[in-house]
Amino acid sequence: MSKARLPEEELLVQIRKGDREAFEQIYDIYSGKIYRFIYFKVSSREIAQDLTSDCFLKTFEHFIERSAELVNIRAFLYRVARNLVIDHYRGKDKEPLKLNEAIDYIVEDLHEKIELQVDREKDLQQVATSLLNLKAEWQELILLRYVEDYSIAEVAEIINKKPGTVRVALHRALQTLKREIAKIK
Amino acid sequence: MNEKRLIKNLKSLEGLEPDKSWQKNSKVFLMVQVDKRLAKQTFAFSEDTATRKSFSRIFLRKPFWVPAMTVVAVVLLAVVSVKASQNSLPGESLYPVKTVFEDTQVFLSFSPARQAALEVSFIEKRVDELKQVVAQTNEAGAADPKKISQAAAIVKKQVSTTKDKLTKLSAKAPAESVSIVTALVEEQTAIFTIALAGVIEGSTENVPEVVAVAKEIEQLNLESLGTLLDQYYTGTTKLSHELLTSRLREKIVALETRAAFLLGVENTLAELDQAKKDLSVFDFRSTLRSITLAGTRLVELAQESDGQPEINAAVISAPQVEGVKTQTVKDVASQLAPQEPKIEATVTGGTSELGENPEEILYSIWDQ
User: Fold this and answer.
1) Least confident residue range of B241-245, B313-317, B354-358
2) 3-class DSSP state for residue A141?
3) Do A22 and A39 form a contact (C-beta atoms < 8 A)?
């Protein structure tokens, strides 16, 4: 019988005791979020899937070896995900996709995954395209705050910055995003 | 677009979710790895728990200290025995403790997938023990056939147990789980075979028992690959085209590497060239057949070479012809030519027939 969902602090305690179900819960909570986080950086379903799997494996290895050092599962998962994307592009033959190719992939995925009316579909395409035009740090901030719906404090924990810094950067990122969208229109 | 509408649109991007079937399969794969890792940790956790018991606290609760001490003593004794047994080798007094502990681990893992994964990890341990036994007898100046035979027989038994678990898994578990565990077995057994090739090469004398073990593991490896191909072609699960390509390519490279050290391997190299051609057009079954034939050539060469260690080491990285004929190729080939079934593969934006334009096809490893 599966356990009721536990708060993350409790999950951390359970994982330290070697409870596999606690790790399963972590996967259930975060696999979609981490996938999206990586997907916006690599614009490929297949690569995002591979890196997401790697992210959870690496995280688990870390839990086993150095669980005492780990205090925030969420922040750790995102950090591992970010590093995996960096490592992925370190390979000689793994150049990032050109922007227009990346946009094509995401737009195609949007068509497949989200059913929308025509006007909203156009809106979403513009938003996704403009989001990809932003620099990586701002992209991350917008994704975490507005797509994943984390609070400012939670975003600050994930990216290891002060909440005030996050608030200012988010404001700038959003304004830039608006300008990018206006350019497309 | 005003800010409210922009934020609403951003929220909609949450709909860019991973594929559900990938998510499910990836979780199964992850948990198999987690179980393997936790199995290694089990006794470390037990030891921690036992040693954390404070003796002084037990003495303070005087009315209970005698039974409590007895329990602690029994637990400590068990933990110490289990720990000490972990480094024991076949034939040593603590070795049965080690195997009983492993049997308990399997017994306590109720999922057939977890049990099969554990059994594979135990093959690794048995192979490691065999390596140590051969190394010990090498150091002593001469291979001790009795000790090596005993360790080799234990590896064979473990291989056989693993096969049984895989059979049970195929009968009980969903096709996706079977694919994942089979892929794990295929991957691991390839590694074990290479390890054993090293043992044979490093041995000062002929070690036919080790060669026999390596061939059994290679056979399990090929059976697993045959099962994966079977699942791929029958569409039971949509295995990654890239995964199969890489596994087959690894086998070709391994055989080429081995053949490079031997003379009179023209036939082997010709078969390997054929395997490469078959692989270049994604004809996986023909590739496996050519690999098998290349292996046959190496086996023939070994039979003529009077069992020199380096020849045997070359051979064990080659498929076992008889085993493949009965276990893999026979089953696989019966569903192969003359008509190749149509393979539907996941592509970006739709489906495509395999071979139509393969380089454009983007497969996901466990995509449904």
Assistant:
1) B354-358
2) helix
3) no
- Phi, psi of B346, deg, nearest 5: -70, 130
Task: Calculate helix-pair angle for B95-108, B20-52, nearest 10 degrees.
Answer: 130
The alpha-carbon radius of gyration of chain B (Å, integer) is 25
Give the pLDDT confidence of B158-183 residue by residue, as tens digits: 999 998 888 888 887 777 778 878 88
ipTM exceeding 0.90, yes/no? no
Length of chain B (residues): 368
SS (H, E, C) A73-92: HHHHHHHHHHHHHHHHHHCC
Of residues A27, A57, A177, nearest to B6 (C-beta): A177
Rounded-to-integer distance, Cα A178 and Cα B336, Å: 57
- Residues in A 24-83 with any Cβ partner in B closer than 8 A: 24, 27-28, 31-32, 35-36, 39, 44-46, 48-50, 52-53, 56-57, 60-61, 64
Identify the CA nearest to A28 among candidates B30, B14, B239: B30
What does the pLDDT look like over A38-88, one tens digit per residue?
988 888 888 888 899 999 988 888 887 776 777 788 999 999 999 998 888
Q: The pTM is what? A: 0.47
Is B365 in Cβ contact with A127 (below 8 Å)? Answer: no
Question: Do β-strands B350-353 and B344-347 pair in parallel, antiparallel, or remain unpaired?
Answer: antiparallel
Query: Which 3 state secondary structure label does DSSP give B344?
Result: strand
Q: Which residue of A has its CA nearest to B23?
A: A31
Q: Which positions in chain A touch B45 (Cβ < 8 Å)?
A: 17-18
Q: What is the DSSP letter of B342?
A: P
Q: How far is B221 from B140, CA to CA, in rounded Å?
A: 33
Report which of B206, B74, B46, B61 is spatially closest to residue B142, judged by C-alpha positions: B206
Which of B13, B27, B184, B361 should be substituted to probe chain A, the one whose Cβ sees the most A Cβ atoms within 10 Å?
Answer: B13
Taking the C-alpha atoms of residue B352 and residue B241, their distance in angstroms, rounded to an integer, is 13
Residue A173: exposure state from Cβ atoms within 10 A (0-12, 13-18, ≥19): buried
Positions in chain A short of pLDDT 70:
1-6, 67, 91-103, 113-119, 185
Residues 6+ positions from B192 with CB-CB distance below 8 Å:
B123, B124, B127, B217
The answer to whether the Cβ–Cβ distance between B348 and A147 falls below 8 Å is no
Contact B27 A31 (CB under 8 A): yes
Rounded CA separation A173/A46 (Å): 28
Query: B243: distance to nearest CA of chain A, Å?
Result: 12
Cα–Cα nearest to B227, from B275, B183, B257: B183
Please name every residue paired with B291 in a beta bridge, in sequence order, or none if there are none.
Answer: none
- Inter-chain contact A124–B42, Cβ cutoff 8 Å? no
Q: Rounded to whole angstroms, how far apart are CA atoms B196 and A118?
A: 62
Question: B339: which DSSP letter?
Answer: S
Per CB-CB distance under 8 Å, the chain B contacts of A126 are 1
With CB atoms and an 8 Å threshold, state whether A49 touches B16: no
